[in-house]
Write a structure and sequence with these properties.
Strand content: 15-25%
Largest sheet: 9 strands, mixed
Structural class: alpha/beta
Helix content: 25-40%
Radius of gyration: 21 Å
Distance between the termini: 40 Å
Shape: globular
Length: 372
């Protein structure tokens, strides 16, 4: 690797773009990671690994300067010529590939979830600390427009003391798509709890801190489905806030993305952050004429007390722009200057403890208490 380690969580690198090896070019790799890496000053997408010839051709067409290889090992073999490895590969590969990359002396970004268990995540964190290398988890939903707005409202005191936080990722997909994300094989880490649930739990912990108890209901609703496709979590935070979280592929009528209730006011927001849709359509941050992460005024959430936003209650609140590019900008800064990455492996382990408790709660039909 061309960098010199100087900090337990970051790497001081030489001048010139940091060269990135990306493992995986499916949805996560092609839609999220590669475009955001390419749009980040100080980063250069150098190598993409995918065994699919069509995806290799897609990667070269979308990023003409990139080299493509067939296997993750072929990326790791180039460790001396790379400054960062990004894992956008299937969930079951995250731990072994992250371990191999760290042992090869490379900082690592891993798509969520980092691991199957908090213990595995903590082991990876310890390895990164021992090697003096950055290890971060791509929790891009911290930079959603609506979440950024909720966070600012809470920090500004506009809602008073928060009592209940409701958050949803709901979809209407009555027919399973198949693939490893919907596999019932435990080794695949499929299902919505570990997929979209990773985002919702991370957001709740970011806002309200540690959780002391978890209750969950998890079902497989669709004919032919193998993994959970309709899951609910009730979290009690140490500070007394209660978070109610829904992830579902079977919701015929979608609820609000957020409903946050405080002692002074509440905030309700419908719809989804526009960045994923923009990336899927081929738009890129920094494109001339594109206001990145900005939604129409008609999509604004409403802030008020004692009335329903559906009947005009409350006042519309301007939504902060979504900012997925901030994640990789922070990664580049951490590698250059040292210091904490934007999302740490320790934070990922905390979220995994909640996800593990939710899985156990749903299986046993009881509330699970978390130590500490």
């Amino acid at each position: 690797m061309s960098s010199e380690t100087s900090d337990p969580t970051g790497t001081a690198a030489p001048h010139g773009p940091l060269r990135v090896g990306l493992i995986g070019y499916g949805l996560a790799g092609s839609v999220f990671h590669a475009p955001l890496i390419a749009a980040t000053d100080g980063l250069r997408l150098d190598t993409v690994s995918t065994s699919d010839p069509a995806r290799q051709a897609q990667a070269r067409a979308e990023h003409p300067q990139v080299r493509t290889v067939d296997t993750p090992q072929a990326v790791l073999d180039r460790a001396a010529d790379l400054d960062l490895i990004v894992l956008a590969s299937p969930n079951k590969t995250h731990v072994p590939l992250a371990t191999a990359a760290l042992e090869a002396g490379l900082p690592v970004v891993v798509d969520k979830p980092l691991a199957a268990t908090a213990a595995e995540a903590e082991k990876l964190a310890a390895l990164a600390q021992e090697r003096g290398l950055l290890l971060s988890v791509f929790q891009n939903r911290r930079w959603d427009n609506d979440f950024r707005t909720v966070r600012k409202l809470i920090e500004d005191g506009a809602l008073g003391d928060i009592q209940r936080f409701e958050s949803r990722f709901e979809r209407w997909r009555p027919q399973p798509k198949g693939g490893w994300r919907e596999s019932g094989d435990p080794a695949e880490l499929g299902g919505l709890l570990y997929d979209l649930g990773s985002h919702l739990v991370d957001q709740a912990l970011t806002l309200f801190g540690p959780v002391v108890s978890v209750y969950a209901e998890s079902d497989v609703r669709r004919p032919g489905a193998e993994a959970d496709d309709d899951t609910f979590l009730a979290l009690t935070h140490a500070n007394g806030v209660r978070s109610h979280l829904w992830v579902s592929a079977t919701t015929a009528m979608l609820g609000p993305r957020f409903r946050v209730l405080g002692s002074r006011a509440g905030y309700v927001k419908h719809g989804l952050d526009p960045q994923e849709a923009a990336l899927r359509e081929g738009l890129r941050p920094g494109t001339e004429g594109v206001e990145w992460g900005v939604e129409p005024e008609s999509c604004r959430g409403r802030l008020g007390a004692g009335s329903s936003p559906q009947t005009g209650g409350g006042e519309p609140v301007p939504t902060l722009p979504g900012d997925y590019p901030a994640y990789y900008a922070a990664i580049a800064r951490a590698l250059r200057e040292g210091g904490r990455p934007p999302v740490t492996a320790t934070e990922a382990a905390a979220a995994l403890r909640v996800l593990e408790a939710a899985k156990r709660s749903a299986a046993e039909g009881r509330t699970v208490r978390l130590a500490g």
